[in-house]
Specification:
The structure holds 2 protein chains of 2 kinds. By secondary structure, chain A is an alpha+beta fold. Chain A has one domain. Chain A has 7 helices and 9 strands. In chain A, strands 2-9-3-4-1-5-6-7-8 form a 9-stranded antiparallel sheet, with helices on both faces. Chain A starts with 7 loop residues before the first helix and ends with a strand. By secondary structure, chain B is of the alpha+beta class. Chain B has 2 domains: about 280 residues, no CATH class; about 190 residues, no CATH class. In chain B, strands 1, 2, 3, 4, 5, 6, 8 and 10 form an 8-stranded mixed sheet that branches. In chain B, strands 9-7-11-12-13 form a 5-stranded antiparallel sheet, with no helix packed on it. In chain B, β1 and β2 form a beta hairpin. Chain B is elongated. Classes of the chains: A alpha+beta, B alpha+beta.
């Protein structure tokens, strides 16, 4: 790839790098050929309680709810695009356990990020985690078959760490994680879908 | 001269609302304009038609307002404490109490910025009337001593706040022996960056008699009007906020105005993924990280504060840290690309609950402090002011620690609650890099750091590089 050519992942995912486009931390879960109701159930929530809301309406309804320990109560925005269903969490990570369940008989994935740079992407197939890793951090590779996607990792720049990291422009590691999932699983979620009205649901207050 | 004209002359445009600030104020409390410790005196007068012998101008009546903070306020506070307790006027049930956090009543206990969501102001002030006769002789004809307590209570997830004001009238003498007639208005009543949404105390348009021995309570629900809620990315400083008292002319007392404007705040819609909200930016918050929740990830921070000269974020000998929005990826890369997992720790972690529903085991991960997302990160080449700073080029140059297993409860945070150094540190390392269980590491970054960045509305924008302290408990 030419140094001046835009990274392929940026064609689909540059929007997540724009200011205010996504939260400082988050957890996005994806599942192939699943319905929103199945996704909501996998999070231990009630599909019947879900309502179509804008992001602003969802935040107004759920964003300030805390449990007795002062920690956020999970809430998700759920939708579909193409064959993929997705669930977006903001400050919680329920999807870390939902992804494996959703992958039974199909594929699922997640990306996770925090403001401190703790990122992870994982791909599941039929109830198994095939590969999971933090971009650029080879020591973090895990899963049942982490070598299987080595060519795609290198092709998308998500592994290994580029020698010129920090000196020249690279897409954000969030864009790289999503670009990797686009490359290996055809996952794409346009901004208008991600930021538009979505089914919104929350865990019940303890 | 009609009263309206006189008041227009007495009330200049308020600086907070006249125009947007040309450059946003820094959030360093030392850079906020300090109120004067000396009494500030403003006077207004009504001239008579009789020329004086000395300068040919008329004699007349004058009223002056003087306000004190600091030592003189302390003296006046002590003097007032020996007098009778003022009687509070009946208050609506919804009216908020004075926040105890402000420590009202004495400059010794008073706190202007007690926490991130409260701004307080207390001032002792005095009305003095005088009369100048035709030969230029000035005679003090009356005085009234008062105390104002004001506060704003902000909300991290709303651009409305509660503004309270208590006026206590102490002694009156001469022309002001029975008090003064006035009305109090919030400065948000005037055109600018905020609006009065609701009045919850005495009505703004009500003229009341400020009678010695009584106190009067005002309250407003106010809201930001500068775009923080509507425009993502907007920051609206609330500077010189407060109230204005407008005194009406009475026998031998000209009209007067006292502007009490020492409340501060800031509203913004600048935190991605969060609702707009408001804080007192001049309070430096303390981020709390609990060992009970984050185990060794929290202990590593405490270890660095206690064992390394930087003592980042520690109130005990350290300096506050500053949240960094943009380059955490790069810092993470420098800190952790050469990290190698510890086999022994991985073996210990393999008996703990898996990381997901498919049984993926808990693992060793690379953790670092100061945070990647802070200007104090060991990998940062410049500090919060943009000046070059010492930095590392590889996380191996940091002090190295590892989570130590100290229990067998099955709870990761409790069993891995401490870190130990892998080699003896010099104490002058620019950072610490640790082998920390993945779940604890990420939980501290998400539940801990992110939640408090948002909770305290900690900004990293041009002009706003909010500091914070860190305490591990």
């Amino acid at each position: 790839m030419s140094p001046s050519a835009p990274h392929p992942a940026e064609a689909d995912w540059a929007w997540v790098s724009r200011p205010m486009a996504v939260g400082l931390g988050g957890f996005w879960t994806f599942a192939l050929n699943r319905t929103p109701a199945q996704v909501i159930e996998s999070f231990g929530m009630d599909p019947a309680a879900a309502r179509m809301m804008t992001l602003e309406e969802g935040m107004a309804a759920y964003d300030t709810r805390l449990d007795e320990g002062g920690r956020p109560i999970p809430w998700i925005r759920v939708g579909t695009h193409g064959k993929w269903a997705f669930a977006f969490e903001d400050m919680t990570a329920v999807g870390q356990h939902a992804a494996g369940r959703l992958s039974a008989g199909t594929r699922a994935a997640y990306i996770s990020w925090t403001p401190n740079g703790d990122h992870e992407v994982a791909l599941y197939e039929d109830g198994r985690c095939v590969v999971a890793f933090e971009p650029w951090m080879r020591w973090s590779l895990s899963g049942s078959d982490p070598a299987r996607f080595e060519p795609q990792m290198q092709e998308t720049g998500v592994m290994p760490c580029p020698e010129d990291a920090g000196r020249v422009h690279h897409p954000s590691r969030m864009v790289l994680m999503l670009g990797f999932l686009t490359r290996v699983a055809g996952l794409r979620i346009p901004e208008r879908v991600a930021r538009g009205p979505l089914l919104t649901c929350a865990a019940t207050t303890p | 001269m009609v009263l309206g004209t006189l008041l227009a002359l007495l009330v200049p445009p308020h600086p907070a609302w006249a125009a947007p600030a040309p450059s946003p104020p820094a959030t360093d409390p030392a850079r906020r304009p300090a109120p004067s410790a000396d009494p500030v005196t403003t006077c207004s007068s009504i001239e008579t038609d009789v020329p004086t012998e000395s300068d040919g101008t008329g004699g007349g009546e004058q009223v002056c307002v003087r306000a004190w903070r600091g030592e003189e306020a302390a003296r006046r506070s002590a003097a007032a404490a020996t007098r009778r307790t003022p009687t509070a006027a009946p208050r609506p049930l919804a009216f908020p109490d004075e926040p105890s956090a402000c420590g009202f009543g004495s400059p010794g206990s008073f706190k202007q910025d007690p926490n991130r969501f409260t701004s307080c102001s207390e001032v002792w002030w005095e009305l003095i009337t005088s009369e100048r006769d035709s030969d230029g002789t000035v005679e003090i004809t009356g005085s009234l001593n008062l105390n104002n307590r004001q506060w704003n209570l902000y909300d991290a997830t709303a651009v409305t706040w509660t503004h309270g004001l208590t006026i206590t009238v102490h002694d009156g003498a001469g022309t002001l022996a029975t008090g003064a007639r006035a009305q109090a208005v919030s400065l948000c009543d005037e055109p600018g960056f905020c609006l009065v949404d609701q009045v919850i105390g005495l009505p703004d348009d009500m003229e009341i008699d400020l009678v010695p021995g009584h106190s009067y309570s005002y309250g407003w629900i106010e809201k930001e009007n500068g775009g923080a809620a509507a425009n993502q990315g907007a920051v609206v400083p609330l500077s010189f906020a407060g109230a204005r008292l407008i005194g009406f002319a009475q026998d031998q007392v000209p009209p007067w105005v006292f502007t009490d404007d020492n409340l501060w705040g800031r509203c913004d819609g600048s935190l991605p993924g969060a609702r707009a909200g408001c804080v007192n930016p001049y309070h430096t918050p303390t981020f709390i990280f609990e060992r009970a929740l984050y185990g060794a990830a929290a202990d590593m921070i405490a270890w660095a504060q206690q064992n390394l000269a930087g003592a980042w974020g520690s109130r005990l000998g350290g300096r506050p840290m500053h949240y960094l929005y943009s380059t955490a990826d790069g810092n993470r890369n420098v800190m952790c690309r050469t990290f190698v997992q510890d086999d022994t720790l991985n073996a210990q972690l393999s008996t703990y609950p898996p990381r997901d529903s498919t049984g993926r085991p808990e693992i060793d991960s690379c953790d670092e402090f100061p945070f990647n997302a802070s200007y104090e990160s060991g990998a940062m080449q410049t500090d919060v002011n943009g000046n070059p700073k010492p930095h590392i080029t590889d996380g191996a140059q940091c002090a190295q620690v590892i989570a130590a297993k100290s229990g067998s409860t099955g709870n990761l945070a409790l069993d891995f609650a401490r870190v130990v150094p892998l080699e003896r540190p010099t104490g002058f390392e620019l950072c610490v890099r640790g082998h920390i269980p993945y779940t604890l590491n990420v939980a501290l970054g998400r539940d801990g750091y992110l939640r408090q960045i948002r909770g305290f509305r900690t900004l990293d924008m041009p002009g706003y590089h909010d500091p914070f302290w860190i305490q591990v408990i």
